[in-house]
Specification:
By secondary structure, this protein is an alpha/beta fold. Helix content is 32%, strand content 25%. Bound molecules: S-adenosylmethionine.
Amino acid sequence: MTPDAGPRDAIRDGVLDTQLAYYRARAPEYDEWFHRHGRYDRGADQTAAWHAELEVVRSWLVALDLDGLEVLELAPGTGLWTRELLDAGASVTAVDAAPEMLEALRRRCEGPRLTTVLADLFTWAPTRRFDAVVACFFMSHVPDERFAAFLELVAGALGAGGRCFLLDGVREEASTARDHVLGSDRAQTMMRRLDDGRTYEIVKVFRGDAELFTACARAGLDVDVRRTATYFQVADGRRE
Ligand SMILES: C[S@@+](CC[C@H](N)C(=O)[O-])C[C@H]1O[C@@H](n2cnc3c(N)ncnc32)[C@H](O)[C@@H]1O
């Protein structure tokens, strides 16, 4: 809930399916966003700031000291963060609903410490507990109607004291492509475009730090919520 605007508008039926279709189709061009190429290039200064802030986020992730731990990564996409987790010495179970994303992930990351699972996170439940749960750039694609259940999934995958690291972007026009427009504070969706011009309605909810903190606390997750200068928001902490 946004503090001054009241509840956000409900999403229409079918948006979660459209969102998944978008990510399946986007898999081959997904990394352009991360590397600030093509439609995501907002100029040299913004690119430098983006990468500098990613380094800050990486330093927060490294500070979790995941060496030797069992990590559940939710919605890993092409494995940009899976690579970091494996390099940090973790064993990773990576769960995503897009086979095209998991194929790209397996091209980037391989080895005995990686397990991939093709599953829909809006219905999947873990059958065991992990030392840590990591979800990067997925929270904002979870609508309000499902957000408590998503955080309960995170908490339920952890034993007492288990760590969580939830990363996402903040509301910043320069984060997205030049031909994307962010919705109003009330809207939970926006239109996304692929390089070939196809458009999809997806969920995009930017949650304030206090809102995120409170939602995590309700799920039994004791987190600190912090931001980098312009682009990123991280909630990291432990299951109580
Ligand atoms: C913005 S990407 C994030 C990818 C990666 N974590 C990163 O930071 O680059 C969102 C990911 O969510 C996945 N996804 C979308 N809907 C999903 C669902 N219902 N269940 C599981 N994964 C889903 C997409 O396939 C995509 O890989």
